[in-house]
Specification:
Length: about 190
């Protein structure tokens, strides 16, 4: 007499082997600019900070452990400090020179997991200059979105760069050289 439990165990074992051996697909999320932010701050007259943001940007991130990646591009023309005259000056040749350099972009080249954070190294292109930078991003969460079947995930982090490293050295006596960027990305799984 055959043992039905052995047959069931064999079938389950073969099924699980197939599932466990199948490659796991990385999760890629398209950045939703409505629920994301790129905010910056810079010192003014060495006494206070001025804050601003970029209103137009796009990109994507992939969550796959040490194979994770992130890529984002911001439109310089969308710089917004809530003062139109200052924004026009920032878009001009003294600072961003938006006509000649319309985009700021970052593309990761490697990632490490460290203390629950993803440490991305990659190339930042600003004002026509590309330099390697490192940014730590924390996964804020992942869960269902508003639409049926939609999955969303969020990352956040901050980094500080020197604008003079990217050829933006105008008014260093009045504005700080260091600019802190605060990033909050929410993405929709593709």
């Amino acid at each position: 007499m055959r043992h039905p439990f052995r047959l069931i165990a064999l079938v389950l074992g073969l099924s699980l082997t197939g599932v466990l051996a199948a490659p796991v697909k990385a999760d890629t999320f398209k950045i939703d600019p409505v629920h994301s932010s790129i905010v910056f701050k810079i010192k003014h007259a060495n006494v206070s900070y001025v804050y601003g943001r970029f209103n137009k940007f796009e990109g994507a991130f992939t969550l796959d452990g040490d194979k994770s990646s992130v890529e984002a591009t911001a439109a310089v023309e969308s710089v917004d400090t809530a003062v139109p005259k200052r924004d026009d000056h920032l878009r001009g040749p003294d600072f961003f020179n938006a006509k000649q350099f319309p985009d700021i972009s970052f593309k990761s080249t490697k990632v490490e997991e460290k203390d629950g954070k993803l440490v991305f190294t990659g190339d930042l292109t600003l004002h026509g200059v590309t330099k390697p930078i490192t940014v730590e991003l924390t996964k804020v969460g992942e869960g269902p979105g508003m639409k049926p079947g939609e999955v969303r995930a969020g990352l956040e982090g901050a980094l500080t760069i020197k604008r003079s490293d990217f050829g933006m050295s105008g008014m260093l006596n009045m504005l700080g050289d260091e600019v802190t960027l605060m990033l909050g990305f929410e993405g929709v799984k593709q």
